[in-house]
Write a structure and sequence with these properties.
Helices cover 31% and strands 17% of the residues. The chain is an alpha+beta fold. It folds into 2 domains: 219 residues, no CATH class; 161 residues, no CATH class.
Length: 437
């Protein structure tokens, strides 16, 4: 059979006529021709799938033989942007009020490989706006990990099999399945808040995704944590190490400084800077802790990150779980930065603002009189901006924009609802202020 590739047209402004229907199963019989290549054995996201995930499989996909299509990558000399220009070129992916249309094509061998080990990159094609790219792709997630017979989430590498190839200036793209979020808006709202308060965070948009011609539904487009992200957020300081916490354990302490995975290598040998940071943090006393923070962090940014983690009720974040964040060491400035990730369980837990601290930067801060005073002020600032920036209005507008696609998503695991999200947003600031001294 000749390979079949799906071309989808650019983007649409919240099309209310998005198709609905049962979620079809992606089977070997329905797979299109393989595009060749080797797998990446160093791919991340190897956590086991959630054993409680429902079986959403349906009828097999029947391919339509449209004849061979040229799958050569676009001319990277003309289309590939420098790292400094990548952010500007990719702006269109994260425009408010836009749902993009992406197509993925996987061959039989690729599908079989992902069924055995979803973390290994396989060859595929990616289509957008009339262009098709040969890419590497693997399935991502831990508790949100789903198979191709369900609503799989994806990481896409445009450089895997075509060296130097980029998509709108980007080397990588992350597509989140949002299966744990009834509103499909928690990450979108969280990253918007981080941006409003000046905390370095990925950008977020939406896409309607098809795989081998089958609608997989609405996905969150998340800016990947790589050199392109560093070039956008730290344009004059990109040569540092970027670490991701592993297995909800990584922290800046002697016991947990080894529980990080190097995501992007810098000029300092891996781990040496983390060990030095742990030494600095561990050596501080309650009286010296706040002064110590000012020597190794952008203190205002750090306290903002921690306050957002608390006010947003993130029950799987740094403070409660040492999870869903990255650490970046900006070497020229001599400052570390916490970067949020995996924000789909924010706006969830309206508990005490001073209990359940696992992350030691937060736990030791509230045990330090000077740091706690500064942190209390930051909690109040976040609660106030939450209202003055009209987070509730922002979420209502975004919900109206994705409503049709959320309802039409054939592989969603819950009915769409923003009720709990909006209730949390509308009541949380006053609950936080009531607990402050």
């Amino acid at each position: 059979m000749s390979p079949i590739f799906l071309f989808l047209g650019g983007c649409s402004i919240f099309d209310p006529d998005a198709p609905a229907g049962p979620g079809p199963s992606l089977t070997l019989d329905s797979a299109v021709g393989d595009t060749g290549g080797e797998t990446d054995t160093d791919a991340p996201d190897t956590d086991a799938p959630d054993s409680d995930a429902p079986d959403t499989g349906g009828p097999d996909i029947t391919p339509v033989d449209s004849g061979p299509v040229d799958t050569a990558a676009p001319d990277t000399e003309d289309s590939a942007a420098s790292e400094d220009d990548a952010a500007t070129e990719a702006d269109e992916l994260f425009e408010e009020g836009t749902i993009h249309e992406f197509g993925l094509t996987l061959g039989a061998a690729a599908i079989a490989s992902l069924a055995v080990d979803p973390s290994l990159d396989v060859p595929a094609s990616f289509s957008y706006g009339g262009e098709t790219y040969s890419v590497g792709i693997h399935i991502k997630g831990s508790h949100s990990l789903r198979t191709l017979d369900e609503k799989a989430a994806f990481k896409i590498d445009f450089n895997e099999f075509v060296p130097g190839q980029r998509f709108l200036g980007l080397e990588h793209l992350t597509l989140n399945n949002m299966v744990q979020d009834r509103s499909m808006l928690r990450e979108h709202a969280a990253y918007w808040l981080y941006d409003q308060l000046g905390v370095p965070a990925p950008r977020h948009g939406f896409a309607r995704v098809e795989v081998n011609g089958a609608l997989f539904g609405l996905y969150g487009i998340v800016e990947s944590m790589d050199q392109d992200f560093l070039a956008r957020r730290f344009p004059d300081d990109t040569e540092g190490n970027l670490y991701e916490t592993a297995h909800a354990r990584g922290d800046v302490t002697w016991a947990r400084s080894s529980d990080f995975v190097l995501q992007q290598a810098g000029t300092v040998p891996e781990g040496e800077d983390l060990d030095a940071l742990a030494d600095t943090v561990e050596s501080a006393t309650p009286d010296s802790f706040f002064g110590m923070l000012e020597t190794v962090f952008d203190t205002d940014e750090l306290l903002t990150f921690l306050a957002l983690d608390i006010v947003m009720g993130h029950d799987d974040g740094y403070i409660t779980s040492c999870n869903n964040y990255l650490l970046y060491n900006a070497p020229d400035a001599g400052q570390w930065h916490l970067v949020p990730w995996g924000q789909d369980q924010t706006f969830d837990e309206a508990s005490s603002i001073y209990l359940g601290y696992e992350g030691q930067l937060a736990a030791r801060c509230i045990a330090s009189p000077e740091c706690k005073t500064a942190f209390d002020g930051k909690l109040r600032e976040v609660a106030d901006l939450w209202e003055s920036a009209d987070l509730a209005g922002y979420v209502r507008a975004a919900a109206e924009g994705i409503e049709a696609d959320c309802e039409a998503d054939p592989r969603k695991e819950h009915e769409c609802s923003t009720e709990a999200l909006l209730e949390f947003i509308e009541t949380r600031p006053e609950l936080v202020r009531a607990q402050l001294p």
